Amino acid sequence: MSVWRSIARRFIRRVISSIPAIIGVVIVTFILMRVLPSDPAVFFTSSSVTAGQAEIDSMRKKMGLDQPLPLQLGMYLRDVARGDLGNSLTTNQPVVKDLLRRLPASLELTFVALVLALATSIPLGVLSALRSGSLIDHAVRFLCTIGVCMPTFVSGLMLVYVFYYLLGIAPDPTGRIDIFVASPPDITGFLLIDLALIGDWAGWRSALDNIILPACTMALFVLAPLTRMTRASMLGVLGSEFVRTAKSVGLHSWRIVVVYALRNALLPVLTMAGVVFSTMLGANVLVEKVFSWPGVASYALDALMASDYAPVQGFVLLMAFIFVLVNLTVDVLYGMADPRVSIE
Amino acid sequence: MSLNRREYLSGSLALGLTSLAGPTFAQDRKATLRHLMGGSVNSLDPSALGAARECYSVTQSVYDRLIGFRRKKVDGQWTFDESVIVPELAERVQRSADGLKLTFHLRPDATWHDGTQVTAEDVKWSLDRMVSAKSNAAAQLSSGSMTKTEQFVIAGPNVVEINLPDANRLALPNLGLPFSVIINSNLAKRHASADDPWALDWLKNNAAGSGAYKVETFRPSEQVVLRRHDNWKGGRDRKIAFFERVIAQTVPEPATRANLVERGDADICLDVQASDIASLRKRGVAKILPISPTNVFTHISFNTKLAPFDNPKVRQAIAAALPYEEMFEAAIFGRGRKLFGANWTGEPPTSAFPLPLPNHTDLTRASVLLAEAGHAAGFDTTFTFATGYAAVAEPIAALIKESLSKIGIRVTIQKVPDAQLFTMQAEKKNLPFYIDTGSAWLPETFYFFWIYYTRDQRWNLGNWTNARIVELVTAARTETDAAKYDAYCKEMIKILAEEAPSVLTFQAAIDGVTTPSIDGFTYHYHRQTDYRDLIRT
To answer: What is the mean pLDDT of residues A177-183?
Structure first.
């Protein structure tokens, strides 16, 4: 029980210590957006050539930009505290609603990509550690280098070109589900869960088909850090004394590798996976663009291009939150896996 | 954790192989139009502040206006013709002899999407909303002398009158534009509040129209699905629309849009990159629609209130030094209409705008003009363009820099995000010399001049004040005599060519792409697809 108490204490301490960081993020983003040399009120009155100063002014008033900057910041902080992140001009919707609708799409993609990446990189890493210096090791190193060198939009477009355009076996790369097959219900926002819940298996299959290419693209990109980390950590563990002891008492070799070595080697990989997850969530904007994936990253980019303040600020805040959460989760998992960490 | 890479890859391919659905899919697919666009539909109210241009694709079909415009065939392609008014919700329009009263007789059998009848009260409420609500419609309608709710009168069952303070030429055409939608007032009023009497918030996300299509689902900035309104009365020859269903979808990646149309998974796309068009044309699977946007022009403008461009001679010098032919070839591969190289002097031969101006590349003349302006040694300046227009503007900027260096003008090229260029245009600061495009929904010469060459407002391209232009625009606005109107417009063009607050370069042709079975595409002044025009053969 003392382990749990220690974890809970660490958890609470970490939550409290992250609050100033999050407030800092909110203020810095707020100021950064306003330093940009574009006026959103002008941008969003540009679809009409008869719209003049009156329209720009009423837009500015609607956005609260007619107030002095400190007052705007104060009002924004007050709204954020109340859970209101303002309105997006790009989509004409409240930012909270947009983010809640789009976050599951990004999370689902990132989860699937991470699972794919881990399912591929751990065996590959173990394999190259066991056969260190062999042809397999070099082949894995080559694959990782290719994966990390190729920008995601290049690998994404290449996958689309081969599997959709040339071979025609992948569905068209436009969003989360085939428009003609099903219209997803809004339960959790995770299509693979929602469609399974209502038992629409044709739709489920379509959602799965649609997620494969973008998830592969993202997985390919993070293959390198995960595989290399698994390999390095595995090499360290394989050379350690308890493995030698296990070998000397004549335990079956796969049992040594999987049960004793891998379990110990996975700790740094776990940390890495947490970092990779948070990075993927924010940095998958190119994948979202290539596959028309309605996620939060492409949403933030569109808003940034239009210097639409509220969605960008909301997105950064959300990312900060997720980063804190992921770090916490990793810490908790770490504490469970290795009791030494909890004592600190 | 025992799944290895090979198993997982072959598994994913097998899933991909079985993904196509059965015959119901094919049936449904044929009756469905799938439209792809790079931008996105962010409002179902076309006049809402901040509504993107892509919204008009949807709202033109979801709402009716009182009137519409005829289409005509030019070089085998359908294009809009605003000189002939056709009925939409009004089956008849009368204009009084003095031009001060418009009388609309509504179709007695037109119904809203919910089945109730379209009434004169709905029309009056919608017109009142256009001039009263905080939206883009008020400024647009003021160009047609409609500013006050008292001007709109219910004159009997199914009859609405509009009283005008002057015989504005644009009063009637204004009512056929995307902002002038007629709204189901009973439905909208149920969602209005004291703070929002015109239901601006509700109508952004919900439709209350009588048009060819009903909105089935609306996901802002992702996709809109429309279902046909089978009781639609506002159509050409009173026919309902061809497609049962329309999907308008945002696909940000241009290559993907082209691929989808080529493979027949999507039906129409108007924003395909020039490079993709070239390869599509080579493979010859998709149908390529050459579009001549006759109401759009590319211009290079100067800030006429900022030295040295406050001196007309400097502007004329640059107009004589621009490498027109090279720009036309390098930027748009010669595909379009030249707006330079004309041979007239003084009055232009036609009053239509945009038209080719008598500008030629003549560096000797440019040097002389520059010397006369007192800048024989040249000067430094900055040439600006937006990243969104870089495909065209980047080669042009390089050519201008090279050409102007020959007469001693040292140009720094500045590429800024679109939002930033818009801000610079509105502020009229730090923007001495730039390239952009302009367009007008109503292709009347004086209307172009009113928007782009008069008043202290953001769209005044050259930040230019010319008293004679203002007089001419004001006079032309209400002129009913065709000869006089022509004379006014010709004089405006003459002054523009001489004073050169901006230089016209060309009208770039664009290409739409459709699957071979799609027919009837019509180019409209708003530059979006109108689903009511399209059929599958």
So the answer is: 76
Q: Does A270 contact B at CB distance below 8 Å?
A: no
Taking only residues 79 to 138 of chain A, the set having a beta carbon closer than 8 angstroms to any beta carbon of chain B reads 89-93, 98, 116, 119-120, 122-124
Using one digit for the tens of pLDDT, what is the confidence trace for B63-102? 999 999 999 998 888 999 988 999 999 999 999 999 899 9
Which chain B residue is nearest to residue A119, measuring alpha carbons?
A: B1
Q: Cβ of B451 and A42 within 8 Å? A: no
> Is residue A14 exposed (0-12), middle (13-18) or buried (19+ Cβ within 10 Å)?
middle
- Judging contacts by C-beta atoms under 8 Å, the chain B residues touching residue A287 are none
Q: With 50 as the cut, is the pLDDT of residue B12 above it?
A: no
Chain B residue with Cα closest to A258: B1
Nearest to B220 among A42, A54, A93 (CB): A93
Say yes or no: A10 contacts chain B, CB-CB below 8 A: no
Distance from CA of B371 to the nearest CA of A (A): 36
Whether A55 has its CB under 8 Å from any CB of chain B: the answer is yes
Question: Is pLDDT above 80 for B2?
Answer: no
Q: Which of B222, B416, B421 should be substituted to probe chain A, the one whose Cβ sees the most A Cβ atoms within 10 Å?
A: B222
Pairing type for strands B522-523 and B77-87 reads parallel
Is there a cis peptide before residue B354, judged by omega within 30 degrees of 0?
yes
Segment 196-225 of chain A within 8 Å of chain B by CB: 202, 205-206, 208-209, 212, 216
Which residue ranges make up each domain of chain A? 2-94, 97-337
Q: Residue range B515-523: average pLDDT?
A: 93
What pLDDT does B37 receive? 94
Nearest chain B residue to A209 by CA distance is B16
Retrieve residue B323's tokens: 């490498």
User: What amino acid occupies position A22?
Assistant: I
Looking at residue A38, its pLDDT comes to 81
Q: What are phi and psi of B432, to 5 degrees?
A: -75, -30
pLDDT, tens only, B108-139: 999 999 999 999 999 999 999 999 998 999 99
Span A326-336, average pLDDT = 78
Question: What pLDDT sits at residue A307?
Answer: 82
Cβ <8 Å between A174 and B252: no
For residue A182, what pLDDT is reported? 67
Q: Which of B511, B512, B533 is nearest to B522 (CA)?
A: B533
- If 0-12 CB within 10 Å is exposed, 13-18 middle and 19+ buried, where does residue B224 land? buried
Burial (CB < 10 A; 0-12, 13-18, 19+), residue B237, is exposed
Tokens of B73: 């065939």
A31-40, A109-118, B59-68: the lowest-pLDDT one: A31-40
Contact criterion met (CB < 8 Å) for A55 and B49: yes
**Chain segment A154-169, per-residue pLDDT in tens:** 889 899 999 998 888 8
Q: Is B16 in Cβ contact with A122 (below 8 Å)?
A: no
Token output for A141: 């190193």
Options 3.90.1170.50, 1.10.1200.10, 1.10.3720.10, 3.30.70.60; CATH of A97-337: 1.10.3720.10
Enter the pTM of the model.
0.86
Residues 6+ apart with CB under 8 A from A79: A85, A86
Q: What pLDDT is recorded for position A341?
A: 62
Locus of tokens 């066991």: A130
- CA B39 vs CA B53, B222, B248: distances in Å: 8, 9, 11
